[in-house]
Write a structure and sequence with these properties.
Blueprint lengths: L2 H18 L1 H9 L8 H34 L7 H13 L2 H14 L7 H27 L1 H10 L3 H12 L1 H16 L3 H6 L7 H9 L5 H19 L24 H15 L6 H4 L5 H28 L4 H9 L5 H11 L4 H27 L2 H9 L4 H29 L3 H5 L7 H10 L3 H35 L1
Helix pairs in contact: 2-17, 3-6, 3-9, 3-13, 4-6, 4-13, 5-6, 5-13, 5-23, 6-9, 6-13, 11-12, 11-17, 15-18, 15-20, 15-23, 17-18, 18-20, 19-20, 20-23, 22-23
Length: 484
């Protein structure tokens, strides 16, 4: 293979890897020295961060385990898919939604809405439903024969579950726990909103140091320790299990009332949010409201389109193993690190920094969640086409695009929905600019909770419109092609 062909084959994959790694590269080039705060500060910060992450996983399992048993009881029922989506919905909602609900409910019952308890509760609300869905599918795909044996021998349910979780599903439970632990460890949005002065996690402490350029070496030192911790934990996290399809009804674990444990998070969110509907007319009169709406709409559509474009590029080179391994194994960069890297590199281009940064933050997660699986399903077809002499463009037009276009636009719609509710990253790089999420976050911090909730309703509406827009594009393209 000639040198030019090698460059043509590897230029775009390497460019994609460098683009996603951009925050680390820029920060390392900018800050040439490392430092650490006093020893007591490090111990206090890390102990609180690890403790809240551990507690978040434990509380999440407290809800997820019974919720999974409730979910298995409704398998093969017409509304099973609806229950799964109700369980999963908090996982897809912006952290601003969950934080707003917690603040409103805690204030209503006169409990301090800031500190360790709200952070842990916020993480549990976010992840418990998703953990329950995965565990329910694992139970129905891997343990049906064990449950049948338990029925025959009259084994108590609690003993059966102990055996299944300790031996049959041990590796899967460890994977789920470690993954959620890493998410909670590097969480920034919820701790920033709910932590207060007494609940500062590592990410929030790094953010405080990054506000002062003279303290950037300390921030880099703490970031290095955080990255090292995630890197070590990643050795214990195996490749996620693909979507579990071969499910069998379980004869033994049917506890229908336990489905309430899985519905509690979304019910909690709705109860905390309903009040905001009454204040929508009031927030429509806020100064700069339309500017914030247009900024949110532009950001949501741009990020969604950017994610679609990235997946199209990846699909051309999906067979290159190092690109696939990088996207699967790449730990999502810190929101704080990404924000300040773009603040350094694109100081005067706020909207471009918002779009590029959110694409970098969302792309690895979306690839691991769904992108890798549907591209992997086409490998045999692509290899056959390559054997017959088809080039990349022909393969894309005839194989990849017809089968993957709906999935590309679905992921683009999800990214657009997430972008509409992001306040943490956009706040860091805002330079005085605003959008609905930043405005809502500022209202919540000023204890104008009702108005903040009303704005979140509006940004959810805009995000949902963008999601539906991207979802409908493949159907529109199909209609246009048929007419031609």
């Amino acid at each position: 293979m000639s040198f030019i062909k090698i460059i043509q084959k590897h230029f775009l994959p390497v460019a994609l890897i460098l683009s996603v790694s951009f925050p680390f590269i820029v920060f390392l080039l900018k800050v040439k020295e490392f430092a650490l705060p006093e020893y007591s500060k490090i111990i206090s910060c890390f102990s609180f961060t690890f403790f809240q992450a551990f507690l978040s996983v434990v509380i999440s399992w407290f809800f997820a385990l019974p919720a999974s048993l409730g979910l298995t009881a409704f398998y093969k029922r017409p509304f099973y898919s609806f229950l799964e989506w109700a369980y999963l919905l908090p996982l897809f909602l912006p952290p601003l939604v969950i934080a707003g609900s917690i603040i409103n409910i805690f204030e209503y019952i006169s409990i301090n809405p800031f500190g360790l308890t709200p952070i842990v509760l916020g993480h549990a609300i976010t992840y418990a439903g998703g953990m329950a869905v995965i565990l329910a599918r694992l139970l129905m795909s891997k343990t049906a024969s064990y449950c049948e044996w338990a029925v025959v021998h009259g084994l108590p349910l609690w003993k059966l579950l102990t055996v299944l979780l300790r031996f049959v599903l041990k590796r899967d439970v460890q994977l789920i726990s470690l993954t959620v632990f890493c998410f909670c460890l590097t969480s920034f949005s919820l701790p920033l909103l709910l932590g207060g002065d007494s609940g500062k996690t590592l990410e929030v402490v790094i953010y405080d140091y990054l506000k002062n350029p003279n303290e950037w070496p300390i921030a880099l030192g703490l970031l290095s320790i955080e990255i090292l911790c995630i890197f070590i934990l990643s050795f214990f996290i195996f490749k996620p299990i693909s979507y579990l399809k071969k499910l069998r009804p379980l004869p033994y674990t049917h506890i229908k009332k336990n489905v309430l444990f899985g519905l509690l998070p979304i019910c909690f969110i709705i109860i905390g949010f309903v009040e905001g509907l009454y204040y929508i007319p009031e927030v429509l009169k806020l100064t700069g409201f339309m500017t914030a709406v247009l900024a949110t709409l532009f950001l949501s559509l741009s990020v969604g389109a950017g994610i679609i474009f990235c997946f199209i590029l990846i699909s051309f080179y999906s067979s290159i193993s190092y690109l696939k391994k990088f996207l699967i194994g790449y730990a999502i960069p810190s929101i704080v690190l990404t924000g300040f890297s773009f603040l350094i590199f694109m100081n005067d281009q706020v909207y471009m920094a918002w779009i590029c940064g959110l694409i970098i933050l969302f792309l690895p997660s979306l690839y691991r969640w769904a992108g890798e699986s549907f591209l992997y399903s086409l490998e045999n077809q692509i290899q056959t086409a390559q054997t017959l002499g088809a080039d990349k463009t022909h393969i894309f037009k005839k194989i990849i695009w017809p089968q993957c276009a709906p999935s590309f636009f679905l992921l683009g719609g999800i990214a657009g929905f997430w972008a509409s509710g992001d306040f943490a990253y956009t706040m860091i790089t805002s330079q005085g600019n605003t959008n609905l999420a930043i405005t809502a976050q500022q209202l919540l911090e000023r204890y104008r909770t009702e108005q903040g909730l009303a704005l979140i309703w509006i940004l959810l509406f805009i995000g949902s419109l963008c999601f539906l827009f991207f979802r409908k594009i493949p159907s529109f393209i199909g209609i246009m092609v048929e007419r031609k």
